[in-house]
Structure to design on (1058 residues):
């Protein structure tokens, strides 16, 4: 079932290679829509009554002496992100329909390959398979930015690649250390995520701290958390529209997913201990990102920094280590994917028309592009967290989680590490978000209408595509599903929340339990298991 | 004596081929000369088959020959494909003795040296005593000096050859001195007896300082062959000066010989450190420092180069550093139940050697497939827009460079993975982190190498780049790119074969000698 979901884009990629360039976009669209359809079947096949369990698992031996197996499986959290990926890829393809005029075939090829890697990351049940896919996402993204990006693309792509590559090598070392510890304990290699999680969770707090540090090197860069976020604005700004969309909507989630899936369960004691530190970094990221947004003149840069700010909330929810915070965080991953992805699409549509991202050169778009303006305002509101839209749910839950983190959970001996103060500081981020996004709307959408003169636009290589002033039907079709989902998830967040409750509660409970229990007990338990 | 010779048929085959080539290569008949590379290929192929079937020699690491000899023949065939075949256009030049360039033509004596050097590498793997080891190492190196000098009609090539020769001679003196000390400390030239003597010394309270000094000097001397610090200075000049196919040869054959020699020498002291540590402390520290310095210096220098061959030269230094990590980590040689092939440092080094040899060859041969105004490509600028003009080469280059970088899921990733696991197993965390950071630093220039052909628009320099007439080279480059992807399937068997290859000779004669079989079948499958 899950393997088919990987095979569909693989076959699509092969088909793109075989067929002439002008058929690349239709093939990519058809293939990614087919993958979306199949993802829907997967969703139907998934039994949400038992959503914490790994379902639809499948496994093949790969490298025997290493215990490496190609194993796939999803729980409901992974499934949500699989759905997000499957949904956004066809939209990204459709969104680039006219924007890409050169080296078309490779563009869609890289995009489809990227989809394979992203799906594999979320579906992997073997640590090394996860890592392979996690690293491999860099290659298609590198080429998407480096070949199809705007003026500063060479630097942006290299910075993006090296930053994340460096971080994830340290992550690899941490993961190998865990695998080795498991091996020295049991005498055989395995990279099964469940087994290794149990192994790491029974290590001493100082070992866990080192592992957490190693994991964070890769995942925090990917998220990105505050001091290591500098690659993101550059990459986002220079990437082509589809690249920005996928980068913001899915690739950043690889980091938060990694934290949720590996860092938290593997190092429960250390994560509990260092959660305040992580939370402080998040809050700095939230406020700093928001302040930087405020002074941006480049639209894409503004949205990029807003991602830094938003992802701060997302990780803050994880650091709260309670059900509200963590499920809010998962919700936030999806919401951010939808609304920021949509905003990048919107900006891409304007960029395709006027070839500028500068707010100094654009203004008063509402007069000439009413439909586009409506969508943009809508997604801005979703991004700000207007109650009734999806953004609100995630933002509220993460802040609520941070606020109530200090109170003991029901039936659990300890409380989360955060408290009201964290929530209070993070809350200022919401206010700042409202300020900078409204400032963005005000400058770009309202006021006097001005765009770069036609001569400037005509000088550009894409100008032979004469697009009408307002959105075409194709562009509306790209944005509409996202808008519908934003409303739907805003009104009915339970679609997601009730389905992810079980796995989230499981993670939260295990962290709280192991943080409170003496380590020795856990070790004995594992010894008993091993023999 | 005769039973010893009976294990050497692959090498003997190569020597016979060399004699044949001397006859055909000096023939007055053009057609006769043109057959030369086919004869060499046939010789290598027969040697490969024989190497797979040979019984194990009675050496310290009896399985090593079963792994290294087929591997050397296989890579040798790939390397041979990249040497030019005599083209009618160049025949008259060669007749007149004016011009010879392995990029464009083959000549009998060049092929002779090529095969002699490969035979030297194979002899290293079968070495049972220090004299043999020394002679085999020199047999590997001496022909390469001449190959560098005659391989290209440029002053730079001659300068490179002279540098290479003098430094090589100095290095040989250093490790020969080390060998002498080892002999003085143990009273034997035979590696098995040396190990027995060292075991006795260790049991009696510690290995004699003379033996440790001897080993240390040998390591430092051999670091010339593997292009490691502190003997790495020649690398960039020599690699750049030599013709590209010769450079590809230099980057693999002497390096493999050096690592094989190091493994044999170090095996004599394996597990004789305090408390069953892999090495005596002084040796461990020496290897550790050499590994860290080699990786770091290699990468640091490679990052600042703009000439492609210099980049590859410095990166080959860095690769030696990674492999030295494997030597430091050689915790367990025996693939006993208590251990696993993936934590065996020696096996990881062998695996890395093969992977590095194959993929590095691809990168060099892409360069050799292209020329600008009849000369080799020099800087990254020459590769600009390669995708538009020669898409296949851009793809091969990207695959090989990304594999050398260690990017999953290409084979280079697994090579690094095994080095990392073995080093983590040995508790060398700091060294693993240094290796990890170095891999990240290497990503900088490998990414440039992989990406420049795809990303940058062709400039004026790149517009003049054209293909060289050598179908075999194209084929070899393509094969190595395919290997970068397809070897992943064989990872398990390759590492198991490497593990079997580096098991210490068990002291009892009745010990099961099954190591060669998996190694051989593995190499056959890979080939």
């Amino acid at each position: 079932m899950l393997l088919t979901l990987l095979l569909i884009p693989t076959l699509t990629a092969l088909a793109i290679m075989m067929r002439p360039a002008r058929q690349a976009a239709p093939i990519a669209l058809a293939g990614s829509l087919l993958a979306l359809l199949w993802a829907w079947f997967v969703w139907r096949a998934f039994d949400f009554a038992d959503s914490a369990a790994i379902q639809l698992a499948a496994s093949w031996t790969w490298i025997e002496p290493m215990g490496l197996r190609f194993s796939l499986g999803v729980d409901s959290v992974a499934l949500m992100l699989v759905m997000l990926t499957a949904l956004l890829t066809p939209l990204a393809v459709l969104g680039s329909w006219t924007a890409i005029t050169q080296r078309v075939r490779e563009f869609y090829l890289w995009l489809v390959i990227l989809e394979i890697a992203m799906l594999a990351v979320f579906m992997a049940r073997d640590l090394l398979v996860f890592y392979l896919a996690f690293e491999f996402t860099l290659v298609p993204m590198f080429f998407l930015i480096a070949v199809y990006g705007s003026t500063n693309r060479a630097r942006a792509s290299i910075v993006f690649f090296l930053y994340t590559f460096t971080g994830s090598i340290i992550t690899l070392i941490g993961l190998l250390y865990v695998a080795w510890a498991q091996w020295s304990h049991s005498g055989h290699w395995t990279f099964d995520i469940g087994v290794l999680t149990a192994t790491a969770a029974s290590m001493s707090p100082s070992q866990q701290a080192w592992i957490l540090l190693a994991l964070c090197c890769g995942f925090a860069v990917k998220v990105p958390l505050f001091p290591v976020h500098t690659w993101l604005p550059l990459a986002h700004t220079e990437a082509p529209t589809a690249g920005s969309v996928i980068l913001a909507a899915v690739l950043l989630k690889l980091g938060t997913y990694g934290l949720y899936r590996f860092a938290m369960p593997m190092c429960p004691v250390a994560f509990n201990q260092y959660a305040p530190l992580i939370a402080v970094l998040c809050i700095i990221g939230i406020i700093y990102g928001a302040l930087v947004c405020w002074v941006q003149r480049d639209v894409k840069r503004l949205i990029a920094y807003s991602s830094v700010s938003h992802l701060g909330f997302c990780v803050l929810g994880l650091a709260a280590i309670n059900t509200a915070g963590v499920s809010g965080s998962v919700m936030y991953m999806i919401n951010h994917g939808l609304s920021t992805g949509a905003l990048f699409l919107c900006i891409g549509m304007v960029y395709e028309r006027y070839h500028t991202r500068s707010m100094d050169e654009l203004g008063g778009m509402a007069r000439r592009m009413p439909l586009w303006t409506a969508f943009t305002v809508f997604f801005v509101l979703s991004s700000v967290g207007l109650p009734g839209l999806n953004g609100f749910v995630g933002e509220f839950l993460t802040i609520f989680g941070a606020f109530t983190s200090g109170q003991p959970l029901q039936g659990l001996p300890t409380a989360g590490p955060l408290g009201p103060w964290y929530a209070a500081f993070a809350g200022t981020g919401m206010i700042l978000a409202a300020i900078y996004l409204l400032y963005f709307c005000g400058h770009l959408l309202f006021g006097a209408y001005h765009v770069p003169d036609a001569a400037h636009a005509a000088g550009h290589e894409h100008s032979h595509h004469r697009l009408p002033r307002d959105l075409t039907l194709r562009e509306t079709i790209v944005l509409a599903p996202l808008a519908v989902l934003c409303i739907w998830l805003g009104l009915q967040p339970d679609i997601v929340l009730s389905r992810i409750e079980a796995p989230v509660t499981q993670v939260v409970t295990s962290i709280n339990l192991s943080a409170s229990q003496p380590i020795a007990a856990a070790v004995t338990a594992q010894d008993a298991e091993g023999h | 004596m005769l039973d010893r010779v009976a294990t050497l048929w692959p090498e003997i085959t190569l020597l016979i081929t060399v004699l044949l080539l001397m006859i055909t290569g000096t023939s007055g008949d053009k057609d006769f000369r043109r057959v030369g590379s086919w004869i060499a290929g046939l010789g290598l192929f027969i040697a490969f088959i024989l190497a797979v079937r040979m019984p194990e020699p009675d050496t310290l690491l009896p399985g090593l020959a079963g792994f290294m000899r087929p591997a050397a023949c296989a890579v040798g065939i790939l390397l041979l494909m990249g040497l030019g075949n005599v083209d009618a256009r160049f025949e008259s030049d060669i007749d007149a003795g004016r011009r010879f360039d392995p990029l464009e033509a083959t000549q009998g004596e060049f092929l002779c040296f090529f095969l002699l050097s490969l035979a030297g590498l194979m002899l290293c793997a079968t070495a049972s005593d220090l004299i043999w080891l020394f002679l085999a190492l020199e047999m590997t190196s001496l022909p390469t000096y001449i190959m560098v000098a005659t391989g290209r009609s440029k002053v730079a090539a001659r300068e490179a050859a002279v540098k290479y020769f003098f430094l090589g001679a100095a290095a040989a003196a250093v490790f020969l001195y080390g060998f002498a000390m080892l002999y003085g400390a143990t009273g034997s030239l035979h590696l098995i007896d040396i190990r027995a003597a060292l075991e006795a010394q260790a049991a009696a309270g510690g290995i004699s300082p003379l033996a440790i000094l001897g080993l240390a000097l040998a390591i430092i001397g051999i670091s010339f062959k593997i292009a490691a610090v502190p003997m790495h200075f020649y690398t960039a000049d020599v690699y750049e000066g030599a013709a590209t196919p010769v450079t590809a040869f230099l980057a693999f054959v002497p390096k493999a010989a050096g690592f094989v020699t190091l493994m044999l020498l170090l095996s004599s002291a394996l597990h004789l450190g305090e408390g069953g540590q892999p090495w005596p402390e002084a040796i461990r520290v020496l290897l550790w420092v050499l590994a860290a310095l080699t990786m770091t210096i290699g990468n640091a220098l490679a990052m600042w180069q703009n000439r492609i061959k210099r980049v590859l030269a410095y990166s080959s230094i860095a690769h030696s550093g990674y492999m030295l990590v494997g030597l430091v980590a050689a915790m367990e040689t025996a693939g006993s139940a208590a251990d696993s092939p993936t934590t065996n440092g020696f096996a990881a080094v062998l695996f890395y050697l093969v992977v590095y040899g194959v993929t590095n060859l691809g990168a060099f041969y892409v360069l050799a497939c292209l020329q600008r105004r009849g000369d080799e490509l020099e800087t990254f600028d020459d590769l600009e827009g390669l995708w538009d003009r020669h898409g296949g080469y851009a793809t091969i280059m990207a695959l090989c460079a990304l594999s050398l970088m260690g990017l999953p899921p290409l084979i280079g990733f697994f090579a690094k993975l095994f080095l990392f696991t073995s080093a983590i197993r040995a508790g060398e965390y700091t060294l693993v982190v240094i290796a990890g950071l170095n891999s990240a630093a290497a990503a900088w220039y490998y990414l440039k190498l992989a990406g420049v052909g795809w990303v940058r628009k062709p400039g004026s320099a790149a517009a003049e780049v054209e293909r060289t007439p050598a179908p075999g080279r194209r084929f070899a480059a393509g094969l190595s790119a395919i290997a970068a992807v397809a070897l992943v399937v064989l990872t398990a068997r390759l590492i198991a074969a490497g593990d079997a290859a580096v098991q210490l000779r068990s002291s009892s004669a009745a010990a099961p000698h099954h190591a060669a079989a998996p190694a051989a079948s593995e190499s056959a499958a890979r080939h």
User: Anything to note?
Assistant: Chain B touches chain A at residues 337-338, 340-343, 402, 407-409, 413-414, 417, 420-421, 424-425, 429, 432-433, 436-437, 439-440, 443-444, 447-448, 451, 454-456, 491-492, 495-496, 499 (CB under 8 Å). The first helix of chain B runs from residue 2 to 5.
